[in-house]
Structure formats: C-alpha cells, structure tokens
C-alpha cells in the first residue's frame, strides 16, 4: 500500500513536470492530457487544477479558468494562482473582483511582479489611473525588463497627460520587446494624440506587420495617414481594411467620409452604393450617404437617406442633427430648426446641435435668437470651434466687432487650420477699418481653403484700397456664393471676359441693388461701342431712366426673355472685362439725362424762388444686406433745416416716411406727396434736376444724382462701402459727389454739423443756377 502511494505520487509529479514543459512550449493539447492524468490520480491536485485554469484562459474559456483556479486556491493558496485568477476576472470584465484577487496574491507575496501588473490592469479598467501607474511601477521595480508592463504604464501615463514620460516608457518597452504589437499600438496612439501623424503611422505599420489582423490597428493607420496629410495612402489603408473585412460598415463609411472631405463626391457615392449593396441595413452608411447627397445639393435625397437611417435604428440627437442638415439643404429652414431643437432635447450634451441651431438661426436673420443656443453650447463644450465660429458670425451681425474677433480668435486657437476663423477675423477687421489687415486675413483663409465668400470680400477690400486690377478679378467670386446665386444667371452662352465683340450680341444683366445698376450704367455705352449689339436687362425701376443714356442698346425688363445673344455679363463684371482702373473710370461727370418734360412738370410743382432746395434721403431699405448703420434719423438734419434760405425736400420713399410725422419743433421738411411716392425713378431724376443739392445717406439716390452730374453730398459710415475708397471726400465715380464721413462709428451728428457749417460758409442765400 505504501509502495503504491509512492509510485502514484512519483507518477503524478512526473506528469505535472512534463505537462508544464509542454505548456511552456505552447503544446497545449499535450499539456492538458498530462494535467488531466495528474487529476485522475488526485482530483484535488492544486497545481494541476491551477495550470488547467491557465490553459483554459489561454483558450478563451474564462468561466472554466475561474472555476479551476478557484478549486486550486481552495486546496493550496498561492500568489501566482491568485494573480492568474485576477487576470481571468479582468478579462471577464469583473474588475473589482480582479483587484481583490491581486490583493490576496500580494498579501501572500509582496514581491509577486505579475500580481502588481494585474492590479495595474484592474485599477486602469476602473479609471483609477494614478493608482494603476503606481502598481505598474511596483511591478517594474521587481522586473524592470518586462516590455508589456512598460507598454501598459505608457498608456496610463498618456491618459494622465504625462506625454513626455509616456513616450520614454513606450520607447523603452519597444527596445526590450521590438515585436510587441501592443507597444507599437500604444506608442502610435500617443504620437497621434501629439499631432505626429507620420510617426504614428509608422508605429501602426510596424504593428500590422506583426499582427495583420489587428482591426483597430488598420483603423488607426488610416487616421494617422490622414493626419499626416497622406490622403491617398489613407484611402489605400481603408481599401486594404475593406478587403479584409468587407462587411464592416465602419471602414466603408470612413473611406467615404474622407473622399467627401476631399471633394471627391462621385467616388464617395460609388463606394457608398457598393457598400450599401452589400450591407443595406447599416444605418451609419445611410447617414454618410445623406451627407454626400447634401454636398451635391440634393436636399430631398439627403432627407430620404437620413429617414432611412432612422428607420434602421439611428436614433438620438445625432440622427436629428443629420436630419436638420438635410432639411436645411432642402430649403426647409423651419424643419431644420425643429430637428436641431429635437436633437438638443434628446441629447442635451450634443454640442454640435447647439452650433448648428445657432448657425441656422443666424443665417435666417435671427441673430439675437442665435446667440442663446451658441452660448449654451459653449457652456457644454468650450473646445468646439464651430460654436465660436458661429458666435463670431452672430457678433458680426450685431456690429460687435471686438467680440466677433475674440470669438474667431478662440476658434483659431482651437483649430489653427480653420479657414473660416481667418475669414471671420478678416471680416471684423474690414468693418473696423483695418483694410490692409483684412486683405492679409482673407489671403490666409484662402491659403487654407477655397472660400468664395473670402475671395469675394478680398476683392472688396482690394477695390477699397484702389487696387482695381486685382480687385475686379477677386470680386467675380460673388458669382460662386450660394446666397448670391441670383447674380450668377444660368445661361448656356459663355460669360464675356473681354473677348472681341465685333458682330456679336452681348447681354448685360443687372445684379444686386438699384444703386449698383445706376453706377454701372456708364459701361453700357462703352460696351455698345465694342459690340455689334448690346441688350441690357435691368430692374423695372431703372427702365424709365434709360432713354437718357447714350449708346445703341436695347433694354428689357427682368422678367422679359432677352433676344438671342452670344455672350452675357453681370453688370459689375463689366469693369473687370474692360480693364477699368481707378484713373480710367468713364463718364465721371455724368451719363444720364432726365426727361425734359418731367423736369418741366416738377419745376412747376417745386416753384419756390429765392430758396436753396436740398433733396433729402435719410433711410435705406432696412432689409438690405448693406443696411448696417447707413441710415440717419431724420431729426438729426434739424440744423440744416434751420439755415436761412434752405428748404429741405423729402426724396424718401416707403421706408422712413413715418419720421416726417415726428419732426422736432421748428423743423420743416417738404413732403411731395403721393405723386412723388408713386412715381418712378424718372420722376426722382427730374426732381433732382430742379434741386440745388441732394443730401443722402448711402442709397441709390446718391448714385442717381452722380449719374445725372448733379451736386450731391453722401453721408457715409466711418467704415464706408468699397466704392467710396478710404479717407477721400471726392469720388472717382462721380465728380459732382462730395463725401462726408463719420469721424467715428455712429456719429451722424458730427456729419450733419459739418454739412451745416459748409453750407453756411458758402453763403447760400441766393439759389444756384438750376438750368440744364
């Protein structure tokens, strides 16, 4: 009996020793057979149970591993067994029990390096990063050459923001274990977070050489290549991943989104169509398809794609943000605003919903309302550049230019490559009178991204500086701006850019406001001298004036079909096509003649000999884009009305007429009544011909007076429109016009005081000669 027990014990020990040898060589099946042979001799043999538990863990049987190791610990507790139990529990996601198992191991053996490592893993999984770092360091103190522990410590240091230490630790891990896939992955992640895309990509490439099936490595490689600016390589990385995992919608979607960012819409659509043919029930692919359709201008298609994504399970605020963007493209601003509001309700911390809602309200002219969601969003996500950019736009609309600059500058600090932020700062500077600085800002924006708005406003700044050669060229970008598409008429014929016109028919068409058309009418006779035939399509209000314009041309209204033509040109593109410079602006002395019959009629109506007649316009169209601060309260002109021998005559129409009922005591302004208010621009021209002077804010009436060659004083903002240049009292566009500039923004009182003083100094008691 004693001899048999000794034999069994010896055999068990031999099986255990041989099993462990096979186990260490990775021969798991042989090791398993031998461990079971041990247990056949002694079912409670602790070491065999422990090693079988480890083997089960290696095969992915975590529940079996836990059961076996717990049986081993019941028979013979050891630090190593507790540590291996902790690893199994950690892999199961039971991090609290894993931590407790590690502490049991360390209670038995403080110098158990694997237990400290596993404790670090358990603490890291619970977000207790400082404690995890300490545990990893204790493990390294015991076993300094352990690459995996160094790699894990590097990830914790990265998460703690200790980038320098993390980098040194991960590089040390790779020196010890150059084939450590985890260390390459972790170092790549650190470098990516530091903005070192190329270095990160190299790490991921080494990772994939070691572990070709590392899915996250493929995903990270494409992202790193993109950050490094290697777009084709990034697309190649996505393609390689798709070849390995053709049914993974994330890779298809990421590739499509990169193509969309590169403006390769057709390729993106082709890839999405192929992916959806294979994976039709992937909601994220339908959401990305919606983006592609939006970018191609297909709003209804984008709405349908988002609705399909929602039907397939896309939910929450993100889906509503997508729906809002699609509805916005489809022209349903109210629906988009409602979708963004629902997104905020569903996901109160979704900052992009606040950014989009504020941006759209601002676009819809509701800037004061727009500020609220943007400020709310900034409380949630102060680091989201879009919130600052959209808030900057709101502050521009509110004439709060310093606040606008501050918002855009914050956005730029968050995203240095933001063309929109450079653009916003430049716009603010332009409105603050820093024109040369605005040019530099617009150029900085355009160096990063082609923005038609930036190019157009660069043109305006250059024109304001008098650089007409370059200014006209950049000014043409207004035709590419979505909000100005009414200017860019869709004709099959080419646009005229200065080509020879002999024997050709040229269609000139009006754009923007009445003042712009009046300013550009001077170019019609010039074009008529070059072309075989010129057709002018102008606003209805302009047509009655055209009989007084020289040159052989035909005029049609905005709704009339023009006759056949060879070229077309928007009116404000004509000076660029003609190569007009500041010194070569034609017809500055006037180019329109009023209707003599109407002049006679209004002379009889206005008869008031012995007075100096001043026609007055104080308000522009409050709905116009250019209205920003240009109108002047009528009451401020009281000092002019008080001058002896002066009669103020209202040339105001529609907007601002109510102010005639609220004049200060003693101030008189003659109201020409319904006959004038219902009359045409031809009546206004005839009246101006009977006046001694026109005084107006920056409106079309100033252009009309200048085009007629009649004296006009135009009151302009401290930072005026481009056509009035900088710091000049005269205008190269109209020799009869004098400019009166605000000394500071909003100071119209000083402008009127100066006008009053100039009139008083000119001794106006006797009327001037009004003969034509």
What would the average pLDDT be, to the nearest integer? 93
Secondary structure tally: strands? 9
Number of helices: 37
Tell me about the largest β-sheet: 5 strands, parallel
Low-confidence runs: 765-772
Per the principal axes of the C-alpha atoms, what is the gross shape? elongated
End-to-end CA span: 143 Å
Q: Rg to the nearest angstrom?
A: 39 Å
Structural class: mainly alpha
| Helicity, as a percent range | 55-70%
Q: Beta-strand percentage? A: 5-15%
Strands of the largest sheet, in order across it?
6-5-7-8-9
Report on this model:
The chain has 772 residues and is mostly helical. Helices cover 59% and strands 6% of the residues. It is built from 37 helices and nine strands. The chain has a five-stranded parallel beta sheet with strand order 6-5-7-8-9, sandwiched between helices. The protein has a four-stranded parallel beta sheet with strand order 3-2-1-4, covered by helices on one side. The chain is elongated and about 140 Å long. It starts with a helix and ends in an 11-residue tail after the last helix. 46% of the residues are buried.
